[in-house]
Amino acid sequence: xxxxxxxxxxxxxxxxxxxxxxxxxxxxxxxxxxxxxxxxxxxxxxxxxxxxxxxxxxxxxxxxxxxxxxxxxxxxxxxxxxxxxxxxxxxxxxxxxxxxxxxxxxxxxxxxxxxxxxxxxxxxxxxxxxxxxxxxxxxxxxxxxxxxxxxxxxxxxxxxxxxxxxxxxxxxxxxxxxxxxxxxxxxxxxxxxxxxx
Length: 197
Fold this sequence. Notes:
Layout: E1 2-4, H1 17-30, H2 38-43, E2 47-51, H3 57-73, E3 81-85, H4 93-109, E4 116-121, E5 146-151, H5 152-161, H6 165-187
Parallel strand pairs: 2-3
Antiparallel strand pairs: 1-2, 3-5, 4-5
Helix pairs in contact: 3-4
């Protein structure tokens, strides 16, 4: 497992998974204000980026458990949230979606319910009951499969500071409707959106 606090390594083919994830976070999540809580922790360097070299779900669960414990044992001022980017495993969204039960089981096994949670991002993300090409899916589409580890108390504080969280979802869909898939792809600096379907 390669850790990336603020440094980026490239894959053998030259792909810089962490740099592309940073671009997505900066241009899409923060740039479009899809998550109004993301900018504060990012500018304070409280986001930990981890590049996983796992090639099996079992290996990824082990890394997830390590990172959950690390986040639990680290002060929020140092690391408030963690993004585990895992480009070599669970590239199919249905497999990834099934894996999320394992993530919940890991939280339970480590007795971290009510303390930490895992949010999900994937290049093929699809909400239940929504067509694959619906632009609303792009609120959760990242360049590579990513597990987002969050502190429950940070989430609660963020939600408490925002009077109507449902407005965020509605506004995000409006923003993405205006932007469109081509605009989303352009913001990431990609010439095509083949990885986004």
